[in-house]
Design brief:
- This protein is an alpha+beta fold.
- The protein is built from 17 helices and 23 strands.
- It has helices spanning about 75-90, 125-130, 135-155, 185-190, 215-235, 240-250, 260, 270-275, 290-295, 340-350, 355, 360-395, 400-425, 425-430, 490-500, 520-535, 545-550; strands at about 15, 20-30, 30-40, 45-50, 55-60, 65, 100-105, 110-115, 120, 170, 175-180, 320, 330, 445-450, 455, 470-475, 480-485, 540, 605-610, 630-635, 650-655, 665, 670.
- The strands form seven sheets. The protein has a six-stranded antiparallel β-sheet with strand order 1-2-3-4-8-7, covered by helices on one side.
- The longest helix has about 40 residues, at about 360-395.
- About 45% of the residues are buried.
């Protein structure tokens, strides 16, 4: 039987702080106490965090907080100012992956942060309750949602500085969110020149052990990787301080890679990402959230400027760099010798399927196989030439004393050629490095690869003009690329500036990274044509079958995440997001489906290139002609739609020249039949 913890330094239950009544204590730490409270003004439950650094302050009368001594006054005041500064910053965030701050106030000699309260538990509580590691699906979901929260934090030039299981809150009705930022406590430690309480051992990287080392997004990357290490192994990684000591003393890094500790229980790609995030040197880690999301999104994209997670566990590493090159790049590094045919098969066999299916990788495989065959032919010719030379010499000097010596030397040479033929991967030593000049990607939509395959399209429950397509199996023979999210105002405005077109209004909701709205089908197709001409790539709107195939991401459920809309998964009427029924959300505010697409449900409905020709149309119908007068199919639902209208199979239609603040679009990019010419930004 577990006993409920007592918090002697917490305010009594029933205490009022202005309009907020404290109902219970949710938890306490070295820098404060968090309460469950009730807001009597708006009649809602809230969470309230009180600034109370135990080493610097105490309660004088059971309520008022004062510094412990005159020597602590300056540090207490400095920390209080940083706490309020952090509160003001958090209040600016409107993101489902970051705790929502309603307000902050100063009272009782200290400050209080009033936050949204949602039923749930911390990740630390979940792990303690379950006593077993998370499975791959859970680990990927939590990692992705934490990264999406950090992406917003870093975009505001801020750091969390204290990512760990107890600071990740798992809501029962939505995605997990970041809580309890560590910037204030770090500022106190820095100001007082004391490292005590500034970091959490096992989760803090080496740069947090110094007052002078530079910190950045890579600092949060390390702590996030350490958190996933804990979730997947049920133990924290070794403290960075011990790793620093080992490096200083020229000892082996004591860190045990998760790719070894948890091998066989998770995919190689996920394990490699965690090891990458936990690199000791900051320069060897991901430098921003996007680098990790690109790998996690099952897209064939690896960072190119820093140390990457290995594609496989062999010494030889194949690096596939698909995001920046115009051709099929495959940089092959020298490794241990092995049979030529076996070696190349083992390397490619360990790449993930989305990478293998990508046309550029297929082209690289073909080129390497051809080069391997050429090397075999050259080595065979060398062996034959050595044998012929030995035969000629033998016939000429058969009766001389020199014959035995020559025979021995030539035998050794022949043996050398044979050994080289069997064991040395010459194409790895001197083989081609296929490179290309990076393509300019300024303000281009971010595209992800949608693999070939088949999927159920449609739904059989209803059958009217605007109802779901009659269920059919839709097959994609050739991979294509799709926008990770809808085209943004930032991207569309560049088109307007280049062509002199009037910029569409944003309804006062903001431009930048919000999806472009108030654009017609004709506007969307003009943008695709302009972008195609500008880049030399083939962009267009997707057909509705292509759209649903990509949105479902292999799922047969109503939504890609399940059969109910749930809460916090999308932006719509009563979807549990901060923007519900009011406005669009910035793109990328919600989790990705299995193909790496975001916002396919809600936010804005999306134009397709398909005519509205009833629900029993063949899925193979091409895009509509621009001059066709019929209505065009719109998919996905919007910020103002009821939840059921966000299902992957729902459809509506609009006139091609109509525009609405509920409709936007995302692009499809056709990949060439010749994989070597395929391009993705």
């Amino acid at each position: 039987m577990t006993t409920k913890p007592s918090y002697h330094h917490a305010l009594p239950v029933g205490t009022r702080v202005e309009e907020f009544e404290l109902k219970s204590v949710l938890g306490a730490g070295g820098f404060g106490v968090t309460y469950r409270g009730f807001d009597h003004q708006f009649h809602r439950e809230v969470a309230i965090k009180e600034y109370l650094p135990g080493e610097l302050a105490m309660r004088s009368d059971g309520k008022t907080v004062i510094p412990r001594s005159d020597a602590d006054k300056e540090n207490y005041k400095f920390g209080l100012d940083r706490f309020l500064e952090e509160a003001r910053l958090l209040a600016r965030f409107d993101n489902p992956y970051i705790v929502r701050v309603h307000r902050y106030l100063v009272a009782n000699g200290t400050a209080y942060l009033v936050m949204e309260f949602r039923e749930g538990e911390s990740l630390a509580q979940l792990l303690a309750r379950r006593k077993q590691p998370l499975d791959e699906t859970e680990a990927r979901r939590i990692l992705t949602e934490v990264l999406l929260g950090l992406q917003a934090v870093h975009a505001a030039d801020y750091l969390h500085r204290d990512i760990k299981p107890s600071n990740i809150y798992l809501r029962h009705d939505g995605p997990c969110m970041l809580i309890d930022f560590g910037a204030a406590r770090y500022a106190i430690g820095e100001h007082s020149r004391s490292l005590m309480g500034m970091m959490t051992p096992g989760y803090a990287p080496y740069e947090q052990y110094s007052f002078t080392a530079k910190q950045g997004a890579f600092t949060d990357m390390y702590a996030t990787g350490a958190t996933l290490y804990r979730c997947m192994t049920m133990r924290s990684p070794i403290d960075a301080g011990e790793r620093i000591a080992a490096a200083t003393e020229n000892r082996e890094d004591p860190y045990q890679p998760i790719s070894v500790v948890a091998a066989g229980r998770y995919s190689d790609s996920l394990l490699a990402v965690i090891d990458w995030m936990l690199q000791l040197r900051a320069a060897d880690r991901p430098q921003n959230v996007s680098e990790v999301l690109d790998v996690l999104g099952d897209t064939p994209t690896l960072p190119v400027s820093r140390k990457r997670p290995p594609v496989n566990s062999l010494d030889e590493t194949i690096r596939i760099e698909l995001n920046d090159a115009d051709e099929a790049p495959a940089l092959i590094e020298r490794g241990q010798p092995g049979w030529l045919g076996d070696r190349i098969r083992r390397q490619f066999a360990q790449l993930s399927k989305p990478v293998l299916d990508h046309p550029k990788v297929a082209r690289a495989r073909e080129q390497l196989a051809q080069f391997e065959q050429q090397q075999i032919e050259r080595m065979t010719a060398g062996i034959l030439m050595a044998a012929m030379f030995m035969s000629i010499l033998w016939q000429r000097y058969a009766d001389s004393r020199m014959a035995k010596s020559l025979t021995g030397v030539l035998s050794l040479l022949s043996a050398f050629f044979l050994y080289a033929y069997l064991t040395t991967p010459w194409y790895l030593v001197n083989g081609p490095v296929i490179t290309a000049k990076p393509a300019a990607t300024e303000n281009l939509p971010t595209m992800v690869i949608i693999p070939a395959g088949s999927s159920l399209i449609g739904d059989a429950r209803v059958d009217d003009d605007d109802d779901p397509l009659w269920p059919q199996t839709f097959r994609i023979k050739q991979p294509f690329a799709m926008g990770r999210h809808e085209v943004t105002f930032e991207e569309y405005d560049r088109f307007c500036e280049a062509t002199g077109r009037r910029k569409p209004p944003d309804e006062g909701w903001g431009r930048g990274r919000r999806p472009v709205i108030n654009v017609s089908w004709l506007d969307a197709t003009d943008y695709a044509a302009w972008l195609s001409e500008k880049t030399g790539r083939r962009y267009r709107l997707p057909t509705e079958a292509e759209w649903e195939y990509a949105a479902r991401a292999g799922k047969r459920t109503s939504f890609w995440w399940g059969n109910t809309a749930g809460s916090g998964n999308a932006n719509c009427q009563r979807c549990g997001s901060p923007w519900d029924g009011r406005m669009t959300a910035p793109v990328g505010s919600f989790a990705m489906n299995a193909y790496g697409l975001q916002d396919v449900a809600g936010n804005v409905a999306e134009w397709t290139c398909s005519l509205n020709a009833g629900s029993r149309v063949p899925l193979s119908l091409p895009c509509a002609d621009k001059n066709a007068p019929q209505r065009r199919i719109v998919r996905g639902g919007s910020w103002n739609s009821a939840p059921y209208l966000l299902a992957s199979y729902t459809r509506s239609s609009e006139k091609p020249d109509s525009a609405s603040n509920q409709v936007g679009f995302r692009l499809l990019q056709e990949l060439s039949e010749d994989p070597a010419t395929a391009k993705t930004p």
